[in-house]
Amino acid sequence: MPARLIDVGGSDDNAIRLVDSFPQLRTYITLSHCWGDADALAGCSLTAARLDNYRQRIPKDVLPATFLHACQFARSLGQRHVWIDSLCIVQDSPADWAAQSAQMWRIYSSAWLNLSATASQAPADGLFRERGDKALGLCIIHVEEGHPALPAGQYRLYADTEWKLGVDDGPVNARAWVLQERLLAPRVLHFGEREVFWECRKLKAPEEEESDEEESDGEESDEEEDEGKNDKENVEEGADDVENGNEEGQDESKATVKDGGKGQDEGELDAWSAIVERYSEAKLSYPSDKLVALSALAEQVALAYPSSGRYLAGLWEAPLISQLPWKMRCHNNARAAHYRAPSWSWACMDGPV
């Protein structure tokens, strides 16, 4: 469980406060969002000086729209607790930041749901959007005379680029930290510019798409819980989508990487290489976080592939010879201004590899 959570209150009391004791906790929600500029969260981020006050109450007037919407949405789902990085990690405590960032994979992989402010470039943008009746741009056709391949009825047509434009190209998914959040969370609800998108290990769909999936009552079965905690599945299912999703214009972060008859080391290499390629394209507010923001996924790989050996600044000991021949995709990329990784690691460079 996280060290701290935000209690969003209930139907009778919607006060928002910080809690660090939750003995009866079964589920909680996480949030992925863009931090915006350096001052965007200065007035509300958790600091050592605010810790005691936040345990009593977090003033709503200091919270940006995205945080307020996340609390409101969680409450509407009957969920009482939300984890938000800037409110649950003491931002001016290097020790707390180091301790909590090391637990990031557990925080997101154990969450009931991850809310993603996919279309928002800053915390003030919020999750929700106003839209007209035609915002989704659906095309509905009526087939009167049936055919074996197309029975009579009403059909909805969707643009096959909707997922790429609405999710993969969304501002939040350009953040390096969000890649591991998206891959580790068992299910993600993306709040896009025009609609909401659902993503989990069994289904990926825009809101207007009809699904035959059975509804969940919010309580996971033992089988679903096991699925959500399988380390190898968590890594491989996300990486396969990162590697192959663009073939269909959709980057599913919850499908499974299949080894396809490959040995374990080769399967691990494929999974990790796909993650590194996508991760290296993403942006970091602080370049010094290059390896830190990937550490949760690295820990999952270590659990999924014990034979991969030690983690060496972005590469793995066992398949090291195969991972050393990396190259930059752009020739104008520069080495990091300050040391963060040895020269033989891709992490010493800024830009896509």
Automatic annotation (TrEMBL):
Classification via InterPro entries: HET
> Annotated region Disordered: where?
205-266
Biased composition range(s): Acidic residues: 207-228, 236-250
* Domain Heterokaryon incompatibility span(s) in chain numbering: 28-181
**Skewed-composition ranges (Basic and acidic residues):** 251-265
Leader sequence segment:
none
- Protein name per UniProt: Heterokaryon incompatibility protein-domain-containing protein
Taxonomic source organism: Lasiosphaeria ovina
Q: Taxonomy-wise, where does this protein's organism fall, top ranks first?
A: Eukaryota, Fungi, Dikarya, Ascomycota, Pezizomycotina
